[in-house]
């Protein structure tokens, strides 16, 4: 779609390295298209036709100025034909470009500054994007892709198949949801805002040291829709341990909180896995609908033990597009310069200073890993 939009704007059939690398197996570091791959999967005709269906040899860097708006596009968009059109980028990857600028020193930008940050695109599903100067091969995680997000760097891309949609499912499938929804609508709030307040109320009422103690004995393994990474097993399913017969607001709040923790634990699992392979992620930059949930942001900081930077302006995808456009039209000479000059102001969420929080989530992470491995054991037992 991104390349099609560039085509509609200019009339030029030019493909971006972002889309062809991430979606159609273009290997920039090996010279482009791999004939043997297409031949081995029965697509010899694509090779014989010079890859014309995939863009042929018209592959350009992200941020390359394709040309100006064609007359028809200028009329449809209400813009002058003098507007420069950049090569395209996938939406999540544009968000990654916008977010990773948070890590760049505006006065002395260095490409190494990007390597310590993970860009989190948190919506219905989630993308976990990390760039490095050298290729880092990580089992179970997509990539590494050269020049697929930030030119001159390799992209490693993890993700969760269900994130916001999982939290919605847990809450909306509960018998109390219609009642809470009516209450939230009456107050002009979201159901999640009500649940967050109730979580804090319960923790105070029970005199707990921190809110996550509410789910000490309730555990959620969140792969309702399979595991994209780092296990890369689409057949995995969810597990919930610790349910009772209760159907009160207290019980829903605890299940909801445990689901937030589980979602954050998946991110910790991805970070743990890619760092073991050679990455050096030590901070997160996040955007998307879940960033509106302050309780979730604190939990993900606590679970990962990483600072989380959230742009105050919440349109990181558009910011990434602006960074690319500024390079394409010559306003900025390089991606790094553009990311530094356009880096957004951020809200910073830091891990809790309470020592027992880290110990608690270390234990939850061990339970999380056991729930994953034991699910495979159950399957093996039943298959024998």
Question: How does this model look, in words?
Answer:
The two termini are 46 Å apart. With 384 residues, the protein is α/β, with parallel strands linked by helices. α6 packs across α13 and α8 packs antiparallel against α11. It is built from 15 helices and 13 strands. Helix content is 45%, strand content 15%. The strands form four sheets. It has a seven-stranded mixed β-sheet with strand order 7-8-6-5-11-12-13, with helices on both faces. A two-stranded parallel sheet has the order 1-2.
The overall pLDDT average reads 93
**Strand order within the widest beta sheet:** 7-8-6-5-11-12-13
Cα-atom radius of gyration: 23 Å
* Main sheet attributes: strand count, strand direction, barrel closure: 7 strands, mixed
| Proportion of helical residues | 40-55%
* Classification by helices and strands: alpha/beta
Q: What proportion of the residues form beta strands (DSSP E)?
A: 5-15%
The ordered string of helix (H) and strand (E) elements is: HEHHHEEHEHHEEEEHHHEEHEHEHHEH
Global outline: globular
Beta strands, count:
13
Uncertain residue ranges: none
End-to-end separation = 46 Å
Features:
single chain; 384 residues; alpha/beta; 45% helix
Strand and helix map with partners:
Elements: H1 2-10, E1 15-16, H2 17-24, H3 35-40, H4 44-48, E2 59-60, E3 65-68, H5 71-77, E4 84-86, H6 91-100, H7 112-115, E5 117-122, E6 126-132, E7 142-146, E8 154-160, H8 164-172, H9 177-187, H10 191-205, E9 219-221, E10 239-241, H11 249-277, E11 283-287, H12 294-304, E12 307-311, H13 316-328, H14 335-341, E13 346-349, H15 355-383
Parallel strand pairs: 1-2, 5-11, 11-12
Antiparallel strand pairs: 3-4, 5-6, 6-8, 7-8, 9-10, 12-13
Helix pairs in contact: 6-13, 8-11, 10-11, 11-12, 11-15
């Amino acid at each position: 779609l991104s390349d099609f939009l560039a085509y509609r704007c200019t009339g030029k059939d030019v493909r971006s390295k972002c889309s062809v690398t991430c979606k159609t197996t273009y290997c920039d570091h090996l010279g482009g298209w791999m004939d043997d791959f297409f031949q081995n999967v029965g697509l010899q005709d694509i090779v014989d036709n010079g890859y014309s269906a995939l863009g042929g040899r018209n592959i350009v860097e992200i941020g390359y100025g394709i040309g100006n708006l064609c007359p028809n596009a200028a009329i449809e968009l209400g813009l002058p034909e003098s507007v420069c059109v950049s090569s395209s980028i996938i939406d999540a990857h544009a968000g990654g470009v916008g977010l990773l600028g948070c890590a760049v020193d505006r006065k002395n930008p260095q490409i190494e500054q990007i390597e310590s940050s993970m860009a989190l695109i948190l919506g219905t599903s989630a993308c976990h994007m990390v760039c490095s100067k050298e290729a880092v091969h990580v089992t179970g995680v997509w990539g590494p892709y050269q020049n697929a997000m930030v030119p001159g760097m390799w992209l490693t891309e993890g993700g969760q198949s269900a994130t916001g949609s999982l939290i919605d499912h847990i809450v909306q499938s509960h018998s109390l949801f219609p009642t809470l929804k009516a209450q939230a609508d009456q107050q002009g709030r979201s159901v999640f805002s009500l649940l967050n307040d109730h979580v804090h109320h319960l923790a105070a009422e029970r005199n707990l040291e921190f809110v996550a103690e509410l789910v000490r004995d309730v555990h959620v393994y969140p792969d309702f829709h399979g595991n994209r990474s780092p296990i890369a097993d689409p057949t995995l399913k969810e597990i919930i341990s610790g349910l009772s017969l209760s159907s009160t607001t207290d019980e829903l709040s605890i299940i909801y909180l445990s689901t937030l923790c589980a979602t954050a634990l998946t991110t910790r699992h991805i970070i743990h896995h890619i760092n073991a392979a050679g990455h050096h992620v030590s901070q997160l930059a996040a955007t998307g609908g879940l960033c509106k949930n302050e309780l979730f942001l604190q939990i993900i900081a606590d679970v990962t033990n990483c600072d989380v930077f959230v742009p105050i302006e919440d349109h990181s995808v558009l910011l990434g597009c602006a960074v690319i456009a500024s390079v394409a039209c010559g306003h900025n000479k390089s991606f790094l310069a553009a990311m530094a000059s356009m880096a957004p102001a951020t809200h910073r969420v830091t891990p809790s200073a309470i020592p027992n929080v880290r110990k608690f989530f270390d234990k939850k992470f061990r339970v999380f890993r056991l729930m994953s491995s034991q699910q495979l054991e159950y399957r093996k037992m039943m298959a024998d």
